[in-house]
Amino acid sequence: MSLGPLTERAPAKVNLTLHVLGRRADGYHLLDSLVAFAARGDTLTLEPGPGLSLRVTGPTAKAAGEGTDNLVIRAAQALLARLPGLDTGRFHLLKRLPVAAGIGGGSSDAAAALRLLARANRLAPDDPHVAAAAREVGADVPVCLEARTRLMGGAGETLFPPLALPRLPTVLVNPRVPAPTAAVFRALGLQPGATIAAARQAFAEGLTRRDLIAVLREARNDLEAPAIAVAPVVREAIDLIGAQPTCRLARMSGSGATVFGLFDSCRAAAAAARALRAARPGWWVATTMVG
Ligand SMILES: C[C@](O)(CO)[C@H](O)COP(=O)(O)OP(=O)(O)OC[C@H]1O[C@@H](n2ccc(N)nc2=O)[C@H](O)[C@@H]1O
Ligand SMILES: Nc1ncnc2c1ncn2[C@@H]1O[C@H](COP(=O)(O)OP(=O)(O)OP(=O)(O)O)[C@@H](O)[C@H]1O
């Protein structure tokens, strides 16, 4: 019996914290990051059938690109290389998230492609070939596979158990300037083999929203300064969100340039988003829940 079209959401990833703990000999950086997911994202559909193709539509389709450059196809090919008899088909990506923006749009699309192929081929959710394909495609793809709040370590391959933390009313702001991940890590200037002694932050379950934000405020995103060196407008975005009277915390996600603001209520987030859109009509401003 053939399956009809299958759909998966590809939510935006938000690094609520991001500490760089060192740099491996191969150049990749060791991270300690609390990763959560937004209610907003892209949508990926797979129509199972012969061949492997991708059509991309939506507001940011052009920037994401079609064909073999797209992480959806790269993820499918990585899984096919491990499982050559795999059923594939036609993917359609509805691309809404800004590209090269630090909110893992491409990684989340790749993870959604792997989930769709796993469903179409009745692979177990924890199939080791799926996990290996995720690791091969990108450092952020493993955490996007399950898309649940958790601490992430190593270069992205170490995933700690999911955490039940309060959902946070959030405004995401992207100044529409790309911050390429490799360039931002390069600007950090850490030598291969370097280690930074730092205690891994712990997040107790049962925290209130207010307590969680207080704990987050003690943390950092260590890529903010190098991202600002690559794209100075990131500083302006952090300052502008942080200046909203009801904003509890303004910080960059991932390697930027997207910045998030955390608020006590959806109403406060919506009001801040209106003010930000009025102040910077050209920027991408989205309200959402994170966690
Ligand atoms: C910064 C984060 O967004 C935090 O979640 C991720 O670590 C980035 O994940 P990603 O975009 O999937 O990264 P990849 O596509 O695997 O790598 C892009 C480039 O970023 C650098 N990179 C990435 C991840 C990492 N832990 N250390 C690195 O140094 C490498 O130069 C690499 O060539
Ligand atoms: N489906 C896709 N969506 C977005 N970008 C894609 C996609 N496929 C390939 N790319 C390419 O991947 C690069 C990274 O895009 P992406 O939006 O994932 O970056 P990011 O948000 O900075 O990711 P991260 O937070 O994981 O570092 C872009 O330069 C883009 O050309």
Please summarize what this structure is.
By secondary structure, this protein is of the alpha+beta class. The protein has helices spanning 61-64, 71-82, 105-120, 128-137, 141-146, 181-188, 209-217, 224-230, 233-242, 266-279; strands spanning 6-15, 19-23, 29-49, 52-57, 88-94, 150-153, 158-159, 168-174, 249-252, 259-262, 284-290. Helix content is 33%, strand content 26%.
Q: List the domain count as a whole number.
A: 2
The parts where pLDDT drops under 50 for at least 5 residues are none
Q: Give Rg in angstroms.
A: 19 Å
User: What is the beta-strand fraction?
Assistant: 25-35%
Largest sheet: 7 strands, mixed
Instruction: Give the C-level CATH assignment of the largest domain.
Output: Alpha Beta
Describe the structure.
This protein is α+β, with helices and mostly antiparallel strands. α2 (71-82) packs across α3 and α6 (181-188) packs across α8. 33% of the residues lie in helices and 26% in strands. The protein is globular, with a radius of gyration of 19 Å. Strands 1, 2, 3, 4, 5, 6 and 7 form a seven-stranded mixed β-sheet that branches. β9 (249-252) and β10 (259-262) form a beta hairpin. It has helices at 61-64, 71-82, 105-120, 128-137, 141-146, 181-188, 209-217, 224-230, 233-242, 266-279, and strands at 6-15, 19-23, 29-49, 52-57, 88-94, 150-153, 158-159, 168-174, 249-252, 259-262, 284-290. It has ten helices and eleven strands. The mean pLDDT is 96. The chain has two domains: 6-159, Ribosomal Protein S5, domain 2, CATH 3.30.230.10; 168-290, Alpha-Beta Plaits. The structure holds 4-diphosphocytidyl-2-C-methyl-D-erythritol and adenosine-5'-triphosphate (ATP). Residues 204-279 form the GHMP kinase C-terminal domain. The active site is at residues 13, 140. One of its GO terms (molecular function) is 4-(cytidine 5'-diphospho)-2-C-methyl-D-erythritol kinase activity. Belongs to the GHMP kinase family. IspE subfamily. Its EC number is 2.7.1.148.
